[in-house]
Amino acid sequence: MRGKEPTQRIDPLFQHNELLFGHDPAPGLIACEIEGPDRVRIFYRQGDLTRSESVAFRPFVLLEDEGWLKGWEGEAELKPLAGSGALKVLALFPDLKQLEEAKSYLQEKSGQTPSAPDARYLYLSDPVHQYLVSSGKTHFLGMTFGELKRLQIDIETYCQAEFEFPNAARLSDRITAIALADSTGWERLISGKEYGEAEMLGEMMREIQSRDPDVIEGHNLFRFDLEYIEARAKRHGVELKLGRDSSPLQGHPSRMQIAERSITYRKYEIFGRHIVDTWILAQHYDVSTRDLAGYGLKEIARHFGIASADRTYIPADRASWYFDHDPDTLFRYSLDDVRETRALSALLSPSYFVEAQIFPYSYQNVALRGNATKINSLFLREYLYQRRAIPRPDEGQEVAGGFTDVEYQGVAQHVLHCDVTSLYPSIMLVYGYFPKKDELGIFPGLLRDLRDFRVRAKEMARGAQREEARIYFSALQSTFKILINSFYGYLGFAMGHFNDYAVANQVTAKGRELIQSAVAWLKGKGAMIIEVDTDGIYFAPPAGVAAEEDEEKLIQELAASLPRGIDLELDGRYPAMFSYKMKNYALLDAKGRLLIKGSGLRSRGLELFQRQWMEKMLLLLLKGEKGKIPPLYQRYVDDLEHHRMDISLLMKTETLQDSLESYQAKVKAKKRNPAAPYEIALRSERPYQPGDQVSYYVTGQGAKVKINENCKLASQWDPKEPDENVAHYKAKLKELYEKFKPFIED
After folding, report:
1. Which of 91, 172, 261, 469 could cysteine-pair with 464, CB 3.0–4.6 Å?
2. What is the C-alpha separation between 401 and 437, in angstroms, rounded?
3. Is 44 within 8 Å of 143 (Cβ atoms)?
C-alpha cells in the first residue's frame, strides 16, 4: 500500500487527538453521501481497492426546550443536554423527511428562519455535515495526499465568428477537445475531430468511470468547464452519469465569500467523488499573500514555476482557428492545461486534504467554508459528543482592530521586517483570554494542541526521508498555522456559538499594547519605523547594524523585551522598500525581484499598459534610478502617440452580468449608468447573453469623451488603421505619473 511508512508515523502523533480528528478513528474514509431518507453510503479505501457500505443515519436539530416540538405530529426522540447553553435539547429524527417537516414546523412556530442569530433551534442544512458531526468520522485518516485518486479535466470550445468568447447556449459553440489526466501520469485527449460532441461526452464519462477518481480537479471548473459540459450535454440529451453509483452530475446556484470578494457560481456535486476547483484554491491562497497578478491558469503556473519549458501557448481568441487549421497544437495546449492543473493542485490542495481529516465536512466543502465556520464545527462536534448544551451566538458588537501606522512614505534602504508569531493566539494563551461560554474548556485545549502539533509537524517535515511524508507534514504545519491564527477571528464571528466580543476586544487591546512597546523599543535603539501593521513592523535598523548577525542580535534583544510566550522573529530583509500608504508598498528582494502589496499599487482595474509602466517605475524607484522614470514615461507617451502599443495593452475585458433587455430597462429607469460593454453588445445586433465577456477599447477624440459612446470591440482594432483614443490613454498614463510625482521628482 502506497504511503505505508508516513502513515505509521502520522497516526500515533496526531490523529489520535479526538478533539481535532474526531472520535471515530476508522481509517480510509474517502467519501460520504446521503442514500435515501435514513441511510448514508460511505466509501473507503482498503489497500488499493475502493469499497462502500450503507450505514444508518439519524438527522437532528437542537432546541431551547422540548416545548418547541409540542403539537408536532411527527416522530422524534428528545434527549436533554447538560450545561447552561441555550440549546438544551437534542431532537433525533428517524429520517430526513421528518427532519424537514420538523424544521418547517419550528420555523412557522417560532417565526424565525434557521439562519436567524437568535433562532430557538439549530438546524444544519447539509446532511453529510450532520452525519460527520454526529458520528465523529472524518475523511482520509491514515492516508497521505498521494493516495488520493485525482483526475484533472479541461475543455476547449469553439466560438462563433464575430463573437469574442464562447457561449454554451449558441449552437455553433461546441466542445472541440476534452483533456483528461490523473495523478498516476495517465493522460488522454478526446478529439473533436475524431468524435462528435455527444460521443466526446460519452467517452469522457467512460474514462471517468473506468479511472474511478476520488477527486475531479480543474481550473475554473465550477464557473466554466462543468457549466459548459452540462449545457452541451443537455442540448444532446446526454445524461452525465459521473457518480460512483452512475448517478448524474448535479448542480445548483451558490455563492461564497473569499475575503472582500463575493463569488457567485454554480456548485456541482458528483455522488462518491469530490470536485476541487484550483481557481478557488488560488483565490484562498491570494487572500494571505496578495502576490498573484491574476487568477488565470497560465499566470499562476508561471508564478509558481510549474509551467514546463516546452509548454504550448495559443491566444485564447484563436482557439477556434487552431481547431480548424492546426488542431494538433490546440490539443497539445489542452493537455498542457491539465498537466498544470495537476501540478497546481499538488501545491495548493494538501492543506485542504489535512483539513478534511480534521473537520466534519467533505473534502470538496472544506475548501468552500470559512475558517471560523470550520472552527465552530469542532465545538459542535465535541459538545454534542459529550451531550452538552450549545450556547447561542452573542449579538454582534464592534471590535477595535490592531495597531496600524505609517511613519515614513517614500523609498527606504536596508529594510527589515519583524513579525510577532501568531500574535493574537499567543496573547490568548499567555493571558488566558478565552470565550466565557466554553464550559468544557475546548478553546484553550485546541489552541495549545495546534501550537504544539505545528512545531512537531515542522520538525517532521524537515526530517522526512520520503517526499510523500514531507508533503504531508508540510501541509499539516501550514494548516495548523492557518487554524491557530483563525481562533482570534472566531471570537468575533457573528455565527459562532462560542463567540465573545468582549474577549476579542481584550485580545486586540493587549496586541496594540505589545506592538507599540516593540515600536518604542526600536525607536529607542535608533531604528526608523516605516510601517506597523497589527503584528509586524517594517523598519530601517539603526546605524551600526549592517551584517546579518547584527540584525539577528537586534531581533533577539527586541524579542527578549516582550513577555514570555510572545515570540518575535525576523521575517524578511530587503535592500529597499517603497512605502506609499498604509498596507500599500513595494519591496525589492535580494534577488532583485519586485514584490508589490496593496490595491493602490496593484489595481486590477488598470489597463495592462498602466500596470506594466507602474512595475517598471517602481523597480527604478527602488534601485535608486528615479532619474530614468521621466524618460520611461516619455517612451510610453511616444508609443501611444505613434500607435506602437498592441490593443491587448489598452483593452478592458468585462463580463455581462445582466441580459441586454434588463440592462436597457435599468438605464431607462435611471437605476444604473450606461456602460461600454453593454452598448457595444447592443450595437452589434448579435445575441449576447449574461456570462459573455466583452473586450473593448476607447475611441473618439479628446481625453474626456463619454466612453459608452466611444468604444469598440478589441477584435475590431486594425493595426494598419489604428483608431484608439490616444488622448484618453495619454491622460490615464499622466494621471498615474502625477500620482507618484512627489516620489519621482522630489
Report:
1. 469
2. 23
3. no
Higher pLDDT, 93 or 259: 93
Query: Under the phi-then-psi rule, with left for phi > 0, alpha for psi from -120 to 50, and beta for the rest, what region is 391?
Result: beta
Smallest Cα–Cα separation from 212: which of 190, 242, 251, 180? 242
Query: How far is Cα 545 from Cα 528, in angstroms, rounded to an integer?
Result: 12
* Residues whose CB is less than 8 angstroms from the CB of residue 502 and which lie 6 or more positions away in sequence, other chains included: 397
652-679 pLDDT, tens digit each: 988 788 889 999 999 999 999 999 999 9
Q: Measured on CA atoms in the order 2, 4, 139, 425, is the torsion positive or negative?
A: negative
- The answer to whether residues 290 and 425 belong to one domain is no
Q: Are residues 594 and 632 in the same domain?
A: no
Which range of residues forms the domain containing residue 562?
Answer: 395-434+500-604
**Closest residue by Cα to residue 226 from 155, 158, 280, 150:** 155
Grid coordinates representing 304 are 509558481
Q: How many domains in the chain?
A: 4
Q: How far apart are CA 305 and CA 476, in angstroms?
A: 23
Whether residue 692 is predicted with pLDDT greater than 80 in this model: the reply is: no
Report the pLDDT value the prediction gives residue 449, as an integer from 0 to 100: 87
- Residue 128 domain flag: no
Dihedral Cα 6, 12, 16, 19, nearest 10 deg: -80
Q: How far apart are CA 226 and CA 293, in angstroms?
A: 25
Query: Which residue in the block uniquely carries the three cell numbers 433587455?
Result: 661
CB 186 within 8 A of CB 211: yes
How far is it, in rounded angstroms, from Cα 162 to Cα 688? Answer: 11
Average pLDDT, the chain: 92
Q: Which SS3 state, helix, strand or coil, does residue 13 take?
A: helix
Q: Looking at residue 16, what is its pLDDT?
A: 79
Percentages (nearest 5) of helix, strand, coil residues in the chain: 45, 20, 35
CATH of the domain at 563: 3.90.1600.10
- The kind and range of the H/E element at 515 are helix 501-524
Looking at the structure, tell me whether residues 290 and 169 fall in a common domain: yes
Residue type, 101: E
Residue 37 lies in a domain: no
Q: Are 586 and 532 in contact (CB under 8 A)?
A: no
Do 210 and 291 belong together in one domain?
yes
Q: What is the mean pLDDT of residues 197-208?
A: 98
Question: pLDDT of 183-195, one tens digit each?
Answer: 999 999 999 999 9
| Confidence label for 276 from pLDDT (cuts 50, 70 and 90) | very high
Question: For 291-370, where are the alpha helices, taking DSSP H only?
Answer: 297-304, 319-325, 327-348, 350-358, 363-366
* Global pTM value: 0.86
In a domain, 365, yes or no: no
348: its cell numbers: 495548493
Residue 6 has pLDDT above 70, yes or no: no
More confident residue, 396 or 357: 357
